[in-house]
Each structure stands twice: as C-alpha cells, then as structure tokens.
Task: structure prediction
Amino acid sequence: MDNIFSARVEAVRSLMQSNGWDILILTGSDPHASEYPAPRWQQVCWVSGFTGEAGDLVITRDHAGLWTDTRYFIQARHQLDGTGIQLHKMRVPEQVPIPEWIASLGMEAPVIAIDGLCQGVEAVRALQEAVPSASIQAVPDILSPLWEDRPAIPVSPIITLGEDLVGESREAKLHWLRKWMILKEVDAILLSSLDEIAWLLNVRGSDIDYNPLVISYLLVTMEQAYWFVRKDESADMDEETMASFGELQSDEVTICNYEEVDLALSTFVMEDVDRIYIDPATLNIRIRETLDESDYNVLEGPSPVPLKKAVKNTVEIDGMREAHLEDGLAMEQFLYWLEQHAGQVNEWEAACELGRLRSRIPGYRGDSFETISAYGPSAALPHYVTPREGSALLEPRGLYLVDSGGQYLFGTTDITRTVPLGPCTALEVEDYTLVLRGHIDLAMAVFPRGTAGCQIDALAREPLWRARRNFGHGTGHGVGFFLGVHEGPQDIRQNFNRQPLEPGMISSDEPGLYREGMHGVRHENLLLCRPVGDNEFGSWLGFETLTLCHYDTSCLDVSLLTADERDWLNSYNERVFRELSPRLPAEVAAWLRDKTRPV
Result:
C-alpha cells in the first residue's frame, strides 16, 4: 500500500530521471560527518521515515534500500513497512556494503548522484574504487527541489568555557596544534568535525539537539585561526554570543561567515600558506573539490584532535566525577519514584520525570541524548524511541530499561539501568544476571598498556557466549567532556580498531541482550582508564567506575556469579550508598540502604 514515504521515493526517481541519474545515494549525516545531524540534513528520514541515527539510502530506478546496523534491524523493519524500501543489514557476516552492492548490479558506466555536502571524501573514494566506470555527480542539497519545507541551518547562542572548567585555554590548544603542524610540515589545517572545533576553541552551542555544538568550519594557520560560523545577521545576537565572539577575536580568531567557506578556500591569498592538511574521514566531498581547484597542496591524514580530546586532563576528570555524583543523585531519586509509581505511569511519563530531576542540577544544559524509556518488548530495540502518545504502561512486573544522560557545564553522563518492576520470569532473571556479569568482568579488567578496546571486548561477552547468547552493538564508546556522548578515537567493540586505551580516556561499558517481542537488558556505566601499576612485565592499566547508581539485586541469580563478581557488585553498591546517601532525602537514603545490602 502506498504511503507518504513510498510517494517520496517515487518523487526522487522522477528527479533522477529528469537529471539522467541512474542511482542516488543519501547518507544519514551532515556536512560535518556528524552522528546526529540537525533536522535540515535528516534526508534519509524525510524520504524513508527511518529515524535511526545510522542509515544510508540508495535509490535506483527499480530498487530502494536502507543500509543500517544491528542496533536498528527491528526498528527498520517496522518503519520501512509499506514504503517499498528494503532493509540491507550491516555488521553481520553476510553484509554487502553499498559500493559492493552497486558494483554487483553490473551497470555499465552508471551515473551516481550524491549530496556533495553530506557525502564524505572516504565514502566517495570507496565508491569510485568499487565502480570505476561510474560517473559520480556531487550535488549540494540534492533534495532541495523536492523538500519544500526543509528546515533552515540552525543558529543558536554560543558560549565560551574558561580554563577553570576545561583545564586548558584555547591559546594553549592552538599552540599545541601549531607545534603538531610544524612536525607535519604543513602550513594550515582545515577542521570540519564539530566536536573537534568546539573542543579546540572552548566554545559550546546547541545547533544540534543534545549536542552542545556549533555548526562551523575552522581553518588554522601558523598565525591565525579562521572560524566559519553561522551568524544571524538579520537580528541582534544575544549578549553572550557577542561577548564570546569578542573574546575569540581578541585571541586571534577571525570570525567568518559559514556560507563563505567555499569562496574563502578558493580565493584566500595567505602568505606562507602552501600545504593544507585535511582529514578525509570527516571532510565532505564538496569542500575537497573546492580545495582541488585551489592552488594549495593538500595533504591528507587523520586529525590529531580526537586523540588529544579523548585523553581528559585533571580538571576535566574532576568535572566528570562531579557530573556523575550529581547525576547519580537524580538517578536514585528517579528509581525511588519509579518503584512507588509502577503500574501508574507510562514510558513517556517516566522519561519526563527523570528529565525533571536532572534539570534541577546546577550547571545542567540539557540531556546528552533522547532518553530511551522502554518497558518489556520495547526494550528489545536497543535504540527505542519513546513515543509521546501511546507509550506502554510500566506494569508492576518484568523489566524496564532506561538509557539516559545529562549535559552539564562540568561534564557529560551516559547511564543505563535495567530495573525489575516486580516479579520476573526465570529467563528475565538469567538474562539480567548474565549481562551484569559481562559488565562487571569488563569493569574489573586489568591489561597491559597498548591494549586496544577490541582486545578486551570479549570480556563483556564471554558470560553470554557460554550461554550461547550475544548482542549486536559495540560494548563501549568514548564520551566527551560537555561534548558528544559518543566520541572516538577509542572504542570497545569487536570491529578492529588499533587505537589503544590510554589513561584519561572515558569509555562506556554497556553489554546487552535483546529478545524480540519479550524484553531487553542493558547495564551501563562510564569507566575512566587509569594506571594500576608497573612491574618487570610492563605498565598496567585498569578502570575506575565513574557512574554512581546502584544495581538492583532483586532480579539476580547470585549462583551464576563468581566470587570476584559478587565482591565487585557488593563493593560498588556500598560505594554508591556511601557517596550518595548523605545528600539524598531521608526516605530515599533509607530505601537505598535496603537496595544496596550485600548479596
């Protein structure tokens, strides 16, 4: 049956026919390779109705397909129903990525249209390599002829953060970057990743929901930094933004118009600038083509900023500890409220209550992502979107999963708790326990310096694997400091990533298990990587758990735990009570005392 999304697919095909395109590719990103794009660039969602954060759409004259990973398979099947769009599964052994799939069509010299602003350099090269006969046309804002009410590029207030909050001035960060440029023998570096720019300039905004980022580009030379940023010229800027711009310009940052970055890169005449460095993993093909047409020599490689940003300094680490203490107080009051209201509230109402509790924390700047409030079968979708209308009642039985986090001026949090709301089945108890075992085993890990996250991922999966169970998403991701809740370059997952875990990195620990139509389980804390000693065998690292919120033991099969796992759980729960109870209301502290008694 036709629906609005199948009609949009047909409209895209008409656009393709009028332009002589055989294939059109849309990505789920924006001009800055962002994981969470602003509404203006949610092109995949507009055409297909798929709302997941990771999804690319390919449309030919007789096929439409969505490529996404294991986190979204169930969601995609539901959202694509009736659209005529076929699900193509990624991160599975039988996966066929888009370039290889297009090559398998056997088309002679196909004309492939892409959005030049939202398609990255590396993705285009992979496509060219797989289909060398193809003619690839990079068209900026490719859907604009069809998307009549397309949202504008957002402009939000901008703030600057001082050394007291972030531990290092922008002058010091720019000095570090310029020293790196000298070693690389380049005269300038162009940054397009929004979190890198925000970190380097110590600026924050809210151009993208849940992400304190400012849509912009940054060109850094040995003498100057040119920030191409959105400015609302039609109205007076708020005082805070004006003050931030003034402060930046006094620090030798030149404020330029975002829309003029193409023109600037093609016409800038900068003395002593010949070699410009770019990161093809984050730069869009439109900007790359502009540089190709310039007189500059372009060098490519990974940006140095993500690794520097991932290793938190002492001020950031102290701030993250404070953020997790405050966040833990809100979480415990929420879980106490939840126990009193099981059977009376739904998923959406629970999410709103948690948001209300967080909003009372001084320094709160919003949630770090949309709260996943999921009861029973809803929790089987790892990235479930809680509906405002018609969400499930939280019944006083079974499992409820809440994955949430806060953005604070002094840090970012991300926590998942799976909560028994009453009697649970034997299978729910077993799944809950096995996932918690995996979570604990990773938290207890000790490993030699130089170890990458992919080398310890199996620690979180081994209890599940022994029971012939598994989960499809990664075990851990990096977390920023009042920045993105997902950041690299480190991660903890099965995909091979050479980046070692280093002291100062903060990563999540979140194994899970999902049974479609039944329940889902996920346990998540944030871990700080830290040194744990040196001996004749080398330097050793381990983790400090930052998150402070108890694990409910009423749904636990203690017989499945090892002695070490049981000791860790008891010690952690006791620590949560000891650190949080002095600041909790008396009735919540008494309740928490009961919840954290040793098993």
